[in-house]
Each structure stands twice: as structure tokens, then as C-alpha cells.
Design a protein that fits this description.
heterodimer, A: mainly beta, six-stranded mixed β-sheet, globular, B: seven-stranded mixed β-sheet, four-stranded antiparallel β-sheet
């Protein structure tokens, strides 16, 4: 069964510093996608970054990068130069590409990030 | 391109009533998924529709149902509401470019309160 684990319920970071949010996953499907979403207090889920299971390089999107370690089944999100507006809940998610769970997204419990001025 | 829209944004119902939520996907997206988010259970997958067919379903009772129209708009219905159905209901759309691993883009959600 597909599973996502985020072990950090809350994280604090100083403004302008980098922070890493942890995510491990479990799946038997060789084809899958890993995603990170940001959910501010308003509730909307904002897509940040995607990593495919067959991608050779780590994904990057502006200040966001995904540290993909396939053998360890981890997909950590790195936010560089944190800003006050980065304070939010962050979710790691996975979608499998094949089998009975194809297309079904599984989310972790989330990490609440607080950026301190 | 306009994002995913959901209506209504807020809803208050009483136990036993039924409710219908609506979702309009991003133009060109044919897959629509629904999720329930609660403080206790987190984000849980309800179902996914693609080209008017339910492609996958989560572990929810039959009181939760959905459908998709030919223009890809989707509705979700909950009958015989229970207090535990109070939640944020999120709709997400995706374009089938990578099969099941397409990026999902979420709407603002409908916050349902059951009294």
C-alpha cells in the first residue's frame, strides 16, 4: 500500500535561512510521482514541485528543490532563503502511475513551517 | 488560464440533510479528484473522475457520491449528513499527460459545517 510519512509536525526557521522538510514514502509501483504542496491558513493547496520516479535529476522550482533519494525512498523539500510568506503547512504527496491505485493521491500528515523575522 | 473553482465556498447544513458541491476544473483538464480534509484524519482521497467515468475510489461510505459531466465539471454529493462530515472538501484537476502521476491543481475548497 502506498504511504507517505512526514515526521516533523512543526519546524521553525529564521528568515533568509534554508530549511529542509522531510518526507519518506512507500510504494511497490515502479512508476510514481512525488509532489509537495503548500497550504496557507486560507486553506487552498498550492502546488510547489514535482519529481517523477524515473527522473535522474532532482527537481528545482525557484527557491524550492526536491532532494530525491530513490534507494532510501525519501523526497525532502528544501526551501532556500526563507521568507515570512513561507509560513504555512506543507504536504508531501504521491501518485502511483499503474495498478489499482493509479491516479490516487496519498498525502502525509503535513509539517507546519513557521518563519521567524 | 483560470484555476480550479469550487462552489459554494462555505456551507452550513444540519444532520440528515444532503449537500451537493461543485467543481470546475482548469480548462483542458479531464481528470477531477475530490478530497476530504479534517484535523483528525488529514487529507483523504474520495474519488477521481476521468471523462465522465469514476476511475478510482477511496474508502468512504456510499453516502458519498460524485459525477462528472461532458464539460469535465464535477459534482460531489453527500446524503444523510453526519456531524463527522464537517470538513474542508477539496477538488483537484489534472491533465492526463503522465498517466496517473499528473500534477493535480487544487481549488480553494468548500468548508462544510454540519450542525
Amino acid at each position: 500500500a502506498q504511504k507517505i510519512t512526514q515526521t516533523q509536525p512543526g519546524m521553525f526557521v529564521q528568515e533568509k535561512e534554508a530549511v529542509t522538510l522531510d518526507c519518506t514514502y512507500d510504494t511497490s509501483d515502479p512508476s510514481y510521482g512525488l509532489f509537495w504542496y503548500k497550504q496557507p491558513s486560507s486553506g487552498e493547496m498550492i502546488f510547489l514541485i514535482y519529481q517523477g520516479s524515473y527522473d535522474q535529476q532532482n527537481a528545482t522550482e525557484g527557491r524550492y528543490s526536491l532532494n530525491f533519494q530513490k534507494a532510501r525512498k525519501s523526497a525532502n523539500l528544501v526551501i532556500s532563503a526563507s521568507q515570512l510568506g513561507d509560513s504555512a503547512m506543507y504536504f508531501c504527496a504521491m501518485r502511483e502511475g499503474r495498478g489499482t491505485n493509479a491516479g490516487k493521491s496519498t498525502f502525509g500528515d503535513g509539517t507546519t513551517l513557521t518563519v521567524k523575522p | 488560464k483560470a484555476g480550479v473553482t469550487q462552489t459554494p465556498r462555505y456551507l452550513i447544513k444540519t444532520r440528515g440533510q444532503q449537500v451537493t458541491l461543485s467543481c470546475s476544473p482548469i480548462s483542458g483538464h479531464r481528470s477531477v479528484s475530490w478530497y476530504q480534509q479534517t484535523p483528525g484524519q488529514g487529507l483523504q482521497f474520495l474519488f477521481e473522475y476521468f471523462s465522465e467515468t469514476q476511475r478510482n475510489k477511496g474508502n468512504f461510505p456510499g453516502r458519498f457520491s460524485g459525477r462528472q459531466f461532458s464539460n469535465s465539471r464535477s459534482e460531489m454529493n453527500v446524503s444523510t449528513l453526519e456531524l463527522g462530515d464537517s470538513a474542508l472538501y477539496l477538488c483537484a484537476s489534472s491533465s492526463p499527460d503522465r498517466g496517473g502521476t499528473d500534477t493535480q491543481y487544487f481549488g480553494p475548497g468548500t468548508r462544510l459545517t454540519v450542525l
